[in-house]
């Protein structure tokens, strides 16, 4: 059967905002997989050492992309001060999360981190002057309520490890806002600064605290570093394409992955509360997605972002 050429063309182009949402969904999926592996490893090895080995694999993955353009992205860096701040926030976020999951269940740490969309939405309105209407505020709040219903934080949620997780959540939220500020930067460079910061910090700390790993663990961590690069690239691309307050609520999809992976890896059977909360989260995300479609049809597209 022969189809006319117009059959293969999209009738309407996919907006930057919707593309950003899809990249955020991909990032959350990959991060969820990496978090399960990290939870297994952090019980026996210092977080900084895991950062160091994983960072080596990530840097090795990114170097060919930088060399392809003769390291032009490194020489022409906009807003270097914000780039350094962003790198420090990324390292702090990762170390705080790794430390938290060493002492409390992954579900409790995830609950603390899923407060990030609340912070990002507020910070976007204050610092980025992004318009955040009552509908989006309501959807974000509903999603957060869904997370609380699904995970039912235990008594550990008020412990000092949980406070560490909340501090990491705050770092992550500010990190997302800063990434939006430097969205004209090459995506590869943004990812490189994140992994270089983790690699350097992990190397310094590992010089004082080192546990001899097995070769199997080293290989697994190197692969984890490569996979983590894919998640970082998706996250950065999401924040380049769309306003932070639009894509941030889709971090709530991590609760869905927590249910699925918790059952497959650890044998955790989700309760009725968990399923109810996950349903609320999914509905909130779908509503924001549909709402953004309507808004972007009425508003002109923003300036096209830098293509890596």
Automatic annotation (TrEMBL):
Name this polypeptide is given = EamA domain-containing protein
Which part of the chain is the EamA domain?
19-151, 160-288
UniProt source species: Afipia clevelandensis ATCC 49720
Q: Extract one GO cellular component term from the record.
A: membrane
- Which InterPro entries does the record associate with it? EamA_dom, EmrE-like
Sorted alphabetically, the keyword list is: Membrane, Transmembrane, Transmembrane helix
Is the Membrane keyword given for this protein? Answer: yes
Q: Which Pfam families match?
A: EamA
Q: Which residues cross the membrane?
A: 21-42, 48-67, 110-128, 137-154, 160-181, 188-209, 215-235, 247-266, 272-290
